[in-house]
Amino acid sequence: MFRGDEPDINIKDIIILDRMMKSNKSKIGTLAAKILSQETYKNENIVKVKIEECFEKNSFPYAKNFMRKTKDQKNVFHHIGIYSYEVETLKKFISFHRSKNEIENKLEQLRAIDNNININVVLGSKSPIGVDTKEDYLAIKKKMKYK
Prior knowledge:
- The chain has 147 residues and is α+β, with helices and mostly antiparallel strands.
- It is built from six helices and five strands.
- The protein has one domain (11-145): Alpha-Beta Complex (Spore Coat Polysaccharide Biosynthesis Protein SpsA, Chain A), CATH 3.90.550.
- It has helices spanning 11-24, 38-42, 87-95, 100-105, 109-114, 134-145; strands at 28-33, 48-51, 63-67, 76-85, 119-123.
């Protein structure tokens, strides 16, 4: 599922996510990127993902949690809002009721975690510009104009 609110996403990262999903027979996969600014940890418009273990070459660790802000910085990355689903897992996912955790945090991926479905995470090459505010829209519009 790709909502289109991160038009600056690196195509090569999507290809790597697809490859990792297939080679690991994962249920759900997503992307993350290194956080380069301390402000990102506080910015509620940027979703963060905490992974169970450090990224290593060609690793595909599980997401432990997703959050909008955090003081914890260990194994926390900028979540890139794209998902790859195994077909049966997607069917299961949409049959679940929204979890309390999902509703409170406004993060649909928490429904999977709350229903014991693992989400694997690939380290992407960069944090794309997400379009969540008018300022984000103007920034991406400017970037696309000069490409």
